[in-house]
């Protein structure tokens, strides 16, 4: 029996591979790198349904439960269940509103406490690269073959050509994030998944507990990823320069000081990631009888749900109603 070949070693490809191996089918995973996963802020949840375009809105209600299930299946994914605070408040946040006293209790280091904020205690942060590696290790332990640092050059009806040679396949799953568009240009409308967005991820050394949960304001998104280390994300334009990066990093550090006060902070590192941002929402499903696509934002949030549903569709041939808006 030819294996299912999953193209992509980021969080989405890793989740699909893990769920496929649990069904007993042979699986091969191939990828050049972790893609946008390595540059992910790692916010699981995110609240407001207005931020879930297209079929993602149908999947948003599955996020928390599927991550909890996956964490039980595969220990060591690196979740930090801290909850989140978001302000200013809009009318459609879909989460609990808390007053300034509660906010000050949740985040005692805040310099200026807002009158109210949207609070979701279910939200969590995850070390996305660690989670992807852990899922791939689980898939490999279950019999999957994993090829790292490998580029896919062509898709055939019976396999894929790669820098490691021809890999036979019964089905090819394309979960290569922003790199999927180039592989599907002859299979679907390129505009469907061509849109991307760049983001700057900044790691800052700071005192442990300065930020206790996930904080999201128009000026700053920040969370603690481990003791003495904060993660800040900042959007970039479609085109950016080194000057833009320096400006964004300075602005992020300024906003951190404005929000949480001055202190001994040290820039530990940064990186830029390019994320797929399909304007009509996720594209998940068969493009041909032998090619299945899984392209979305946010891949980190949706990976456990998409992995479970995609594996079921691929192995059973039955369409999952939860994915009907993702075609």
Please name the defining characteristics of this protein:
alpha+beta, six-stranded mixed β-sheet, 20 strands, oxidoreductase, FAD-dep_OxRdtase, FAD/NAD-bd_sf, oxidoreductase activity, FAD dependent oxidoreductase domain-containing protein
Summarize the structure.
With 327 residues, this protein is of the alpha+beta class. It is 28% helix and 29% strand.
Question: What is this structure's SSE topology?
Answer:
Layout: E1 4-7, H1 11-23, E2 27-30, E3 43-44, H2 56-60, H3 63-73, E4 79-80, E5 84-86, E6 96-99, H4 100-106, E7 116-120, E8 124-126, H5 128-141, E9 145-147, E10 152-156, E11 159-162, E12 165-168, E13 171-174, H6 180-183, E14 196-205, E15 214-216, E16 221-226, E17 229-235, H7 242-260, E18 266-276, E19 283-288, E20 291-295, H8 299-316
Parallel strand pairs: 1-2, 1-13, 2-9, 5-15, 13-20
Antiparallel strand pairs: 3-8, 4-8, 5-7, 6-7, 10-11, 11-12, 14-17, 14-18, 15-16, 16-17, 19-20
Helix pairs in contact: 1-5, 1-8, 3-8
